[in-house]
Write a structure and sequence with these properties.
Structural class of chain A: alpha+beta
Number of strands of chain B: 16
Number of domains of chain A: 1
Order of helices and strands of chain A: EHHHEHHHEHEHEEHHEE
Mean pLDDT of chain A: 96
Radius of gyration of chain A: 18 Å
Number of domains of chain B: 1
Largest interface: A-B, 65 and 71 residues
Order of helices and strands of chain B: EEHEEHHEHHEHEHEEEHEHEHHEEEE
Radius of gyration of chain B: 20 Å
Mean pLDDT of chain B: 97
CATH topology of chain A: Peroxisomal Thiolase, Chain A, domain 1
CATH superfamily of chain B: Thiolase/Chalcone synthase
Strand content of chain B: 15-25%
Distance between the termini of chain B: 24 Å
Oligomer: heterodimer
CATH topology of chain B: Peroxisomal Thiolase, Chain A, domain 1
Shape of chain A: globular
Largest sheet of chain B: 11 strands, mixed
Helix content of chain A: 25-40%
CATH superfamily of chain A: Thiolase/Chalcone synthase
Largest sheet of chain A: 8 strands, mixed
Distance between the termini of chain A: 19 Å
Structural class of chain B: alpha/beta
CATH architecture of chain B: 3-Layer(aba) Sandwich
CATH class of chain A: Alpha Beta
CATH class of chain B: Alpha Beta
Number of strands of chain A: 8
Low-confidence stretches of chain B: none
Helix content of chain B: 25-40%
Shape of chain B: globular
Strand content of chain A: 15-25%
Strand order of the largest sheet of chain A: 3-2-4-5-1-6-8-7
Number of helices of chain A: 10
Number of helices of chain B: 11
CATH architecture of chain A: 3-Layer(aba) Sandwich
Chain lengths: 263, 398
Amino acid sequence: MKSVHVDAVGLAGPGMASWQDSLAVLADEGAYRAGESPRCASKLLPANERRRVSATVRLALQVAEEAMAQSSLDIDSVCSVFATCHGDTEIVNRICVALTEPEHPVSPTQFHNSVHNAAAGYWAIAAHSPMPSTTVCAYHASFVAGLMEAVAQLQVEARPVLLVAYDYPAPDPLAASVGAFAPFAVAMVLSPDATPRSTRLRIATVSGQPVQGMNCGELERLRVSNPAACGLPLLRVLATGASGRVILPHVNGLQLAVDVETG
Amino acid sequence: MMPTEPLMISACTLVNALGRGTRACFDALEEARGGLRPCDFEDADLDTWIGRVDGLEDEPVIAELASFDCRNNRLAQLGLRQDGFLDHVAEVRARHGAVRIGVFIGTSTSGALQTELAYRHRDPVTGALPADFSYFGTQNAMSVAEFTRRFLSLDGPVMSVSTACSSSAKAFASAYRHIKAGLCDAAVVGGVDSLCFSTLYGFSSLGLVSDRPCRPWDAERSGMNIGEGAGFALLEKSNGGEAGVALLGYGESSDAYHMSSPHPEGAGAAAAMKSALAMAGVTADAIDYINLHGTGTRANDASEDRAVMKVFGGGTPCSATKGWTGHTLGAAGITELLFALGSIERGFIPGTLNSERLDPALSARVLFRNRAAPVRCVLSNAFGFGGSNCSLVLGAVS
């Protein structure tokens, strides 16, 4: 059983512009209306870099910036773990189209933005942070793999970690293979020690436990379709401010049991 | 960070342009036989050299995993079948149980080639990709990690680490942490990246590929060559007595500078090396050999040179081995870490193939020719786009 502390959260998804904005609907799902996806932006990225970033990177940076703005920790003192299943499919699409054209005109900027760690690279620039950062993928359990990596870092290196999970819908023709979903991202500032407003999580690997879904059909669709949203049941417990246990499935029968402890 | 107990590398395997298996690779290094050739990959029309692995076209993945069939997973499969690696994994699986063995695979482009080829065959009316295109089995970054996990029948924590050219070095760091945190007892760490058009034309669009075999640290160096490769290692706790080679430390940092250009003073690279040494509990003078990231581009080598000078001064022997294999991108971290392991096992320091005249603007002690020397402790660098830096320290333990 590993113990970590959630110091702050950032969130963006359909009908949820921020963590604060989502608290009411996560605590009372009956009030949820999917509505528009938020228009995301980075406030911290220098203007010359801001022009180059895609909607996917803006989604990741918005929740990372929101979480750090709410955090009691210094922005350049936290390590980061980015988790995304699909990366930037808009850029994959553009490069693959360019490769079918004569002369194969791949844009240098799009090429360097095509790496799976593009959001992490822009985050380091935005936050002026030299701290270690990694980017992981585990299909629809990418948030779970990111959380495990963050927990492992907290246990072994005893430094705070910013976990950012994000996935943005794919354009045609990739969408038919990737699957349709709404954009969603969540960021959690995790600390090895309690902070003034933190909530304690105890985390263990288990198997064969029943997995909770969301009650509201639209939130449940989001949970199962967007890999970054597979932690919604955990976010629901955090939003209510109560204690509780959630089971988050990994890809292969392995599960994470997360106990949220308040008070 | 305080020095902590090292983890043993109890088995390993490699496939790249030098051949199949660690022995073929270490022999080629020792005999100064390179694996690069003029670009003959599919119909790519580029004036450059590449490090290609022969035979992948004829060796599909096993039928049970057919939806994963693509060049990248074929390369993974070929790697897993060398060096008796499957037997070593079976032995560890029997000892710990499948659920207690993690799989951590670094890749930059996974099965991207499959998507590139699918785009050539879009439906002329609807634009749809061919019906047999398997996105999750090929293009997705997780494909190679899940393929590896299933091929090895393992059930522990599994993830792809995808941080461009530092990916498989950072996979070692993630595996180390998962074992130390008790999330698994042992780990298969890997790195697999294969030739595709995105990287060939993409690095070309950045003006970073050379029209001849790359020459790291040479005054006339003119860029890199793209290669492909697979490497795997078994990482385990020491049982207390055995001799072998252990991962002593890792160091990671972010440049926070630019997406594709390294920090000109190598600040991030220096930070990664320093923290790897600190974790290993050794000082700079304990390192017998540095396997440089050494891509052969003007900016990368200059930046890394400054970083090495900052941490080590000009006394520590260094070399770059990409002149043998090309830059295997996400597989470079493990490929070159295992070259460094070969250096310990065989008692020689590889030179820097193809390089002839040391750039007078660079100061690190870079060897151009192979040298016999006892090697006990090595540091290997891997740096990637997004300013992602990782250094690993390996050491002989007895």
